[in-house]
Amino acid sequence: MARPLSEEKRAAILRAATELVATVGTSAATSQIAKRAGIADGTLFTYFPTKDDLLNQLYLSIKSALAEAIMTDYPSRAGVFERTRHCWDRLVNWGAEHPTQHKAMRQLSVSDRISRNTRDAVNLAFQDINTMIRDNLSRDAADDESAAFVGALITAMSDVTLDCIAAHPEKIDLYRESGFQVFWNGVRP
Amino acid sequence: MARPLSEEKRAAILRAATELVATVGTSAATSQIAKRAGIADGTLFTYFPTKDDLLNQLYLSIKSALAEAIMTDYPSRAGVFERTRHCWDRLVNWGAEHPTQHKAMRQLSVSDRISRNTRDAVNLAFQDINTMIRDNLSRDAADDESAAFVGALITAMSDVTLDCIAAHPEKIDLYRESGFQVFWNGVRP
Amino acid sequence: MARPLSEEKRAAILRAATELVATVGTSAATSQIAKRAGIADGTLFTYFPTKDDLLNQLYLSIKSALAEAIMTDYPSRAGVFERTRHCWDRLVNWGAEHPTQHKAMRQLSVSDRISRNTRDAVNLAFQDINTMIRDNLSRDAADDESAAFVGALITAMSDVTLDCIAAHPEKIDLYRESGFQVFWNGVRP
Amino acid sequence: MARPLSEEKRAAILRAATELVATVGTSAATSQIAKRAGIADGTLFTYFPTKDDLLNQLYLSIKSALAEAIMTDYPSRAGVFERTRHCWDRLVNWGAEHPTQHKAMRQLSVSDRISRNTRDAVNLAFQDINTMIRDNLSRDAADDESAAFVGALITAMSDVTLDCIAAHPEKIDLYRESGFQVFWNGVRP
DNA sequence: CATGAATGAGTGTTCATTCAT
DNA sequence: GATGAATGAACACTCATTCAT
């Protein structure tokens, strides 16, 4: 192998893409992304064959990082409340610590450039969380649609919470708490 | 009426823009919008000086229509529950009846092309609703930010509800009801 | 109509394309063609939706001009020799007078960007000539393939003749005559 | 033989280039040629310093193979007819047996990337054949240009013949014969 | 005021060539 | 010598906007 694909460069591209997608959306130009990543225009395409591939992999990588943040130290044996609380806090903390990734993630999640495949892969990364929701929080444990509804609600409510935290970072504890109250009172079994 | 009058043309442009933004997002080409509105490319720019203007006015007009739908027959003298229920039902019903407008609205609301000014004007259109929220639902009546938080939550939760309804239109009553339960249990005073 | 498509501009584009295709082949850049035609890059595409369209229309227009040059004053009632002679002389004279068009035509005729449709349309323009060949020169009047063989031979031989004339323009009469002798002796009935 | 020696690699590159040039023309990408040759992108350039070099050497090598095919068993002492017939048959048979090489050769012969130098070198490979033409078939034995004219004619006529054979392989004997008749009747002394 | 041709900067992507490994 | 990642100048084509008609 002459020069291995540089993991560093790949990461730089994803980092640059995150920042630009967060700022200007998926219409961020590949040449801008390359420039910000400190590589030549053409190099981007040795790491990601098309812009859509880049966007999809970016979405997957951010979502995976979020899932990992949530599932680390997950208290499997604790009660429903503790486990729900754990997920919520991790989700909100991750968003507050990674506002750029969070913004990019929101832009990508409404984009039609994210494929069915990618969305399926993301669901896989959230499998444990989805299972927990289905078993404990959805109105009807047997109902996939009901679980999806609750899952979408938690995402939407955390997005709102994170927007507020972004606007008033000093009130993070307040918003994290209020958000959880609304969520838990709304969906608790 | 081969050549509609001015106001009709403006409306035709907004209608065409709604459909295209709902379908392909804010990257919809002005020439496509003009074609669908039945006018020449250049004519669009006598009604809206730039594409950003068109997008901003479109957002404002859709949001205003939604606000009007919500506030019509608003039961000012009823109790908090009834008034909240009214708003929620109107919101969800409007979204279910105008899926194209709703989709366009969501695309626009995450776009960076919608200006601070426009967002302020939208808040104005929702002033009555915001006041109701502030006075009845926000944790602290004196706190604007708390009211904004609850307002954003209702929007986010109705978006999720409407997405589910779009996926399973026959379950509209179920989703409208479940969504309201979650919201009301979550935020009731 | 605001400003009608300018026939002059269309002609300028075709002229510029002819010159560049003759020089560098079908890989001539559209931006070079536009520059040589004295228009903006984008304008080219209001006259020809794609580069392939431009190339196909160019081929058709050159071939049509050639067909017209050949068929003008065609002596329908003269004998086979006179008619064959007429076609050959016209073909060679046209090529000698329009060396750029001839070179471009040769480049285009071997290109895979010229569609079946275009080749059919060209055959239509040469219908009379083809008929004459089938009826008088092909070995077997009933055989389309035999006629195509002779038709291809006349083209190939005139190309060679024209190449020689291009190299030694002063010997046009000699080459025109020699070429015809070879052709006529080769294929005469 | 996992890693062929140098000369084999050169041959593999030329073989791959032949196939791709025959298929897609001289715009075949060097990376595609390298891949089909089973070597790395960069390796191609240790054998051929530029793409133009590759194309020129390819043209020369194909033309040389053709010349060799023609001159093998050349009946030097036979009459003009027999010798002419020998050349024609060898030429047509070679083309029918090596359709890919023939197609590549035609693509290359109209390309502006083949240099004056290369064309001169090709003429050298065909020196014996050209001499035969000059001495026996050209209208004026002292005239180089006349010989070149006849040489170009034989090439052009065989190309047409080979195209027809490619379209109807089962009629190879018919076309080889018809083609020769036209040629011989056309140019015989 | 309406029209649509004209503009040219910008887009995602390709590719011959270089050079670090 | 072989490798393939890196380069950046092209490329065909798009599009918001202008302006002659």
UniProtKB/TrEMBL annotation, chains A, B, C, D:
Pfam families: TetR_N. Residues 7-66 form the HTH tetR-type domain. Keywords: DNA-binding, Plasmid. SUPFAM superfamilies: Homeodomain-like. InterPro entries: Homeodomain-like_sf, HTH-type_TetR-like_transc_reg, HTH_TetR. Residues 29-48 bind DNA. It comes from the Bacteria. Gene3D superfamilies: Tetracycline Repressor, domain 2. This is TetR family transcriptional regulator. It comes from Acetobacter oryzifermentans. The lineage of its organism: Bacteria, Pseudomonadati, Pseudomonadota, Alphaproteobacteria, Acetobacterales.
